[in-house]
Amino acid sequence: MELGWIAVAALVFLARMLQNGIGTIRDIWVIRGERGKAAVCSFTETLLWMIVFCWVLRDFFDSPLSFRTLLNFLAFASGYAAGTYVGVSIEERMAVGHVTVQIISARREREVGRMLRERGFPLTTLRGRGRYGPRTIYQSVIPRRTLSAFLASVEREDPEAFITIMDAKSVRGGRIRTRS
Question: Would you list the domain boundaries of the chain?
Fold first, then answer.
């Protein structure tokens, strides 16, 4: 059974989106040192790429300047772009790993730390000095899935706090909050 040219273009788009979405997730697993998961993603990604590329190439060799070929090229490229978007969206929902959050507060020095500790977040407190006087620096390593709650708590307590967030590739020792 021969698929219509619009159906082929739709399949090219969907398969390419899936393939690149998997590739984006693979990149995250590689960065986090998850070799096995990255290898499974690589295999699946490559298999999908070969299938999609063959579909597009077949139509190109049959009639290189046709509307069908152009449509497949557009589906191939737009599927790649959509796959990047989908992959990043999935990765954000997975919220794998930990982040290091640093908060620099000029006011409410005690309240911010007490409030975060009451909510179960691990916290290290340092004294600092900024351009306009003393500051309290809080540092916490937390699971990424708890980041939204952490930030909402800080912003409620000190809306003017300066906050930086860094990805933590590896975490060892100490105590990390595991509840969400």
Answer: 5-94, 98-168
- How would you class 88 by CB atoms within 10 Å of its CB: exposed for 0-12, middle for 13-18, buried for 19 or more? middle
pTM, entire model: 0.65
Structure tokens at 113: 């730390």
The C-alpha atoms of residue 102 and residue 131 are separated, in whole angstroms, by 18
Pair 54, 46: CB distance under 8 Å = no
Least confident segment among 62-66, 100-104, 159-163, 172-176:
172-176
Fold of 98-168: Alpha-Beta Plaits (3.30.70)
Per DSSP, helices labelled H in the chain are: 5-31, 35-62, 67-94, 109-118, 147-157
**Residue 62 vs residues 2, 12, 67: alpha-carbon distances, Å:** 15, 17, 12
Contact 70, 8 (CB under 8 A): no
CA distance 74 to 47: 20
Token pair, residue 168, equals 């933590």
The model's pLDDT over 67-103, given as tens digits with 9 standing for 90+, comes to 888 899 999 999 999 999 998 898 888 877 889 999 9
β-pair type (133-143, 124-130): antiparallel
